[in-house]
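Risk register update: the risk of archive-format incompatibility is retired. Evidence:
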Amino acid sequence: MATHEESSIADLLRQLVEDGNHLVRTEIRLAKAEVRDNVAAAVRGSAGIGVGAVLLLGAVFTLLGAAVAFLTPLVGAGWAAVIVGVAALVIGGVLIMAGAKKLSASSLVPDKTVRSVKRDAETIRGSVG
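Archived output:
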């Protein structure tokens, strides 16, 4: 027959396991929500970038044509096209590299959840040790 003290220890252990399970489920829900929010923000940002790029593309073609027309009397049509084309190539390459650095997978990491899990682990270690 179990004593009152033994059943209290069993109750405490059962409660500890239940609390641990609840904590894990809560952290998983938080991570899912945070990732979902981050992905939604990335999709909205990408849609804006796409629409803006289409509009800017027309403007860029117009300006490049104007630059070629401006340089043609000075250096001839062929050289004007080469000069404008090389300048556009260099500027475009720099902009693409800069944008690629900013658009990384690290922006999708659920930072709040990672910090929360680390705090939970430290708290558990502190209470056990």
